[in-house]
Amino acid sequence: MIHHQQGSVRGVDENAHDLSPMKMQRTIALPGPHLRSRITPNNSLSSEFTVRYMETMQPSLEEFSALVHVIDCGSVTAAAARMRLAKSVVSKRIASLETCLGAKLLHRANRRIVPTDDGLLVYERAAALLPQVDALVDEVACRSGALRGPIRLAGPLSFGIRHLSRIVVDFMHLHPEIEVRLDLDDRYVDLAGGGYDLALRIGRLEDSALKVRRIASSNRAIYYSGAYAQTSELPVTLADLAGHKCLGYVNAASGHIWRFQPIGGGGARSLTLPARFLTNNGEALVDAAIAGLGLAVLPTFLAQDAVRAGKLVEVTLPGWTVEADTIYAVYAETIALPMRVRELIEFLATKLRPPSPWDA
Predict the structure, then answer these.
(1) Any idea what DSSP says for residue 188?
(2) What fold is seen in the domain 149-218+327-351?
(3) Chain segment 119-143, per-residue pLDDT in tens
(4) Domain 220-323 adopts which CATH fold?
(5) Is residue 223 pLDDT above 80, yes or no?
(6) What is the rounded distance in angstroms from the CA atom of residue 159 to the CA atom of residue 348?
(7) Which of 185, 60, 186, 71 lies closest to 127 in space, CA to CA?
(8) How far apart are CA 8 and CA 212, in angstroms?
(9) In what order do the strands lie in the sheet with 2-4?
């Protein structure tokens, strides 16, 4: 068994100026309870024990993974948080990898840890290899009918609380060895920077390098409350909307621009209406509409409870309907998407296929 001598291995300290690997001394247990021999680069041992020592010096996948995460995150601290490991563990893995390869892989520049030329070469190869290994493990596991491993998923806050979380729970019941971290935020997250496998997004997506899978439609409508109807005459045409107090959602372009499709076909219409109240949260928008502050365009999944309770009423504009949004699954363009992530995408598409649960 090989033991690290205490104090002989230095981790990658992001506050240090010298990130070069230190010379390491390792101890090899020889036959006999008390006989030990110490090996350094200048020692010579019999071929048997030299082979045994060299075998233990092969880099591990965990060490390559630590390097990829540190370079992606720009610091050991951020990488450790993403990997859910102690900072010292990540540092030791980097130091061990540098020692195994005999090369300095990282250095500090402008408060970030960046790769050396050798580090960049290792990073590029490891970043391509690790997803393939992950996919291989998934594929073999699937042959036995079991999915296993972690999935990090991001989704919009209100939709996540009302619908996505339930679907994820059902998926985890079907696959007991799956682990999920679900982060809910109405703002779009950086998939690569945040270490996400997958994100669910609602709206009209901008061009990006991400891969996209259409999951479902999210119908929308204009809503008002009884309190608003007592103070304002309801609109009956698109032109009437300009004379009304409106509420807006700031996290999407569709929150500022109301788009309408003609029933029966024809050209779409877009209206940019001044908003008396703006918010980045759908629940707050519902509350403002119920309080009578103005008209609000809301997704039906968000308005359904208030409509059923009689707190909100849909505005009907003859010949027109509010343009629906689309629910997408987006993920990074990788060589091999893990089977567990692909299966979750299919599960989401099945659960949200028309008619949507909230419109049924």
Answers:
(1) P
(2) D-Maltodextrin-Binding Protein; domain 2 (3.40.190)
(3) 999 999 998 888 888 777 777 776 7
(4) D-Maltodextrin-Binding Protein; domain 2 (3.40.190)
(5) yes
(6) 13
(7) 71
(8) 48
(9) 2-4, 26-29, 36-39
Q: Give Cα 313 to chain centroid, integer Å.
A: 35
Q: Looking at this protein, which amino acid is placed at residue 110?
A: N
Partner residues linked to 184 by β-bridges: 155
d(CA 157, CA 138): 29
Give 182's strand partners.
153
What pLDDT, on the 0 to 100 scale, is given for residue 295?
96
Residue 297 structure tokens: 């365009």
CB distance 218 to 327 below 8 Å: yes
For residue 12, which of 138, 113, 128 has the smallest C-alpha distance? 113
CATH 1.10.10.10 fits 2-125, yes or no: yes
Reported residue count of the chain is: 360
Contact 302, 282 (CB under 8 A): yes
Interacting residues of 262 by C-beta distance below 8 A, sequence separation 6+: 268, 269, 319, 320
Q: Please tell me the distance from the alpha carbon of residue 150 to that of residue 43, in angstroms, as a whole number.
A: 43
Q: What is the DSSP letter of 242?
A: G
